[in-house]
Amino acid sequence: MKYSIAVEYKGPPPAYHLPHAAPVDGIPVSAEVSHVPSFDTPSLSVISQPMSELKSLSSSSAIAFDRSNCSGRTTVSPTSVIAFDNEAGESNGVSESSCELSSKHSRESSNSMLRNSKESLDFNDSDYASSRVSFSKNNNEPIATFNMDADDCEPVEPVKKESIRKGKKGSCYRCLKGNRLTEKEACLVCDAKYCGNCVLRGMGSMPEGRKCVGCIGYPINESKRGSLGKCSRMLKRLLNRLEVRQVMKAESLCEVNQLPPNCVCVNGNPLSFEELVTLQNCSNPPKKLKPGNYWYDKVSGFWGKEGQKPCSIISPHLNVGGPIKPDASNGNTQVFINGREITKVELRMLQLAGVQCAGNPHFWVNEDGSYQEEGQKNTRGYIWGKAGTKLVCVFLSLPVPSKYSTSCGFLSSNVVTRTVPDYVEHGIVHKFLLVGYSGSGTSTIFKQAKILYKNTPFSEDERGNIKLTIQINVYAYLGILLEGRERFEEESLGNLKKSQSLLYTTGSSPKLGSKTIYSIGTRLKAFSDWLLKTMVSGKLDAIFPAATCEYAPLIEELWNDSAIKATYERRNEIEMLPSVASYFLERAVQILKTDYEPSDLDILYAEGVTSSNGLASVEFSFPQSAPEETGDTADLHDSLARYELITIHARGLGENCKWLEMFEDVGLVIFCVSLSDYNQFSTDGNGCLTNKMILSRKLFETIVTHPTFEQMDFLLILNKLDEFEEKIEHVPLTQCDWFSDFHPGKTCMCPR
Ligand SMILES: Nc1nc2c(ncn2[C@@H]2O[C@H](COP(=O)(O)OP(=O)(O)OP(=O)(O)O)[C@@H](O)[C@H]2O)c(=O)[nH]1
Ligand SMILES: [Mg+2]
User: Fold this and answer.
1) Alpha-carbon distance 84 to 675, whole Å?
2) Average pLDDT over residues 49-75
3) CATH homologous superfamily for the domain 460-605
4) What ipTM did this prediction achieve?
5) Which residues does GTP bind (predicted)?
């Protein structure tokens, strides 16, 4: 394809970067079962998601049980070895090329160029030596042309305006005061950050939303598209409601902030303006469309990022982009759907949906999910026909058709809707029970469900209490750290004494010292003694929040003290310090301030946020427009169905789980196991030290064999995959008796 751009020189040149490639965001996750010995559950599926992403439940894998096919349920022994293939995809956002160009174009022309590649634009051509763009000058009118090879399509990224930082890192761009902890508002174009005192001066009346006055008229930085129209707390404080509404509306709707069409490449072709309009205005458009390369199966409506599994099902038969390529999603299964080789996870889904995939078939799949083999006339079945397929898709992070998929689509087809499982039908509240052994991560999953699916996940009051819990936790972590410091100091002093007595015997004159790198001054020592005493007496929460104000200044001094730094370096040797402590300790000074407000991520990581017996429930529907960064899949859930997620701590179930009867009306039990527990120990009901993985299995067996749950579906989530991945490198699985006969031979356990 060949494009021409007329170039016209005007005005002084602002500096721009021309990004040459737009990596699609999201993390490609594929899962592969490399070795499944003696797992007596016939239907097995695996999902894997990183904890760092709010959209994921947690770093976890899941095994879905299809109870109907499962014989010998009571002797479930998941000794399967699962290898995960978490190929890290390209990082989120937009990667920039080294090619920087000086542009002299006026703002207007820059904007219109982004919407239509034929419009005029001006370049300083000398900067293009190494780029893919070539120039020629004709009658003093420079013409830039560039070739777009359809096989090697790179969407044209919008030019970016970069901010110039004057002050030190983290300071406000205007007054140059503050540090990285100071609350700031960022410009959507150049990312200049302003403190609360400067934001209104720096951004003026914000006719295009949060942009510096000098950036008005410029397109936004695409990595910030997700935050368009989402007001920050700072702005809410500075402006009144009406002003906030106006600014946010302008930010979302003004022309210059809209997505430029040629930044979106579909099946190898950059879109034209008309194509983008078609795509965005169809009955079921891709959600949160960003610049990047996508593939689109026009027959079935499957849509995905180039080289990745499908992420949504959009309206079929749209006249956008080129024809789909066989390697569009980088599949390697030799099974094809509408000309595209599908990925392993899709193959897994097809198998679970009962589709015969032996013999490397080429399927023809229609928008209603009906499928036939290429060259044959008869419909072989419906992908969505089997009960549970949609749920499997949800857990494999594969898209399911939404009710908007097609007017004649599967949801309006009686044949198919009859087979949709109960828990996705409208009207009823579908209850899920979430349980697991202590520390398996159930609270985290529960909080994530709230954050993802509730409009107001936590009330003001709840946030206030959570803030207090986090602050108390931080003092507790500090206490544990200070305890570690004392131990390290004693050890060091002991070693010092030993070496000094050695010097004595060898005749050197020793100089007795009582200080080590772990020693602290008297002021901090007094605080340390007080904190440790308070912790021992169990009164830590009784003296807060008063202590927060009183002792906060000391924390900064403490945190900067070299002895504490040396102790923190050795935090891995302090068994009592949970791994999550680092997340909070590194921001201890900020967190212990009175004006600290916990972010959703803080709440997610915080310990002790759910009630002590762990009984809690949350009712939700999947939002039509999912919260930020949840990806496209979540958007496709049925937004009318209502769900209730109930969680209870294992100890809240009583002896032999007698209280399980209370949950007889749940439709699915989600059981959570921490994969990294295989070398951890805890005391069982008789006070015997037992491997935690085995304790987890016992609990699972008790629940799965409980008479109340005879007909219940179970979903097993293998959680803390990230910790497991790290641990398995140096701690053998055989440390757990359950896996003592595990000898992987040449099979690689490691996912990468
Ligand atoms: N690394 C890692 N940590 C996790 C993951 N999920 C949860 N955690 C952490 O594990 C700890 C225990 O998680 P919780 O969600 O409180 O687990 P729980 O089952 O409710 O535990 P209890 O309330 O102690 O019974 C917390 O510190 C979490 O932050 C995960 O996927 N990866
Ligand atoms: Mg918990």
Assistant:
1) 13
2) 37
3) GI Alpha 1, domain 2-like (1.10.400.10)
4) 0.98
5) 719-722
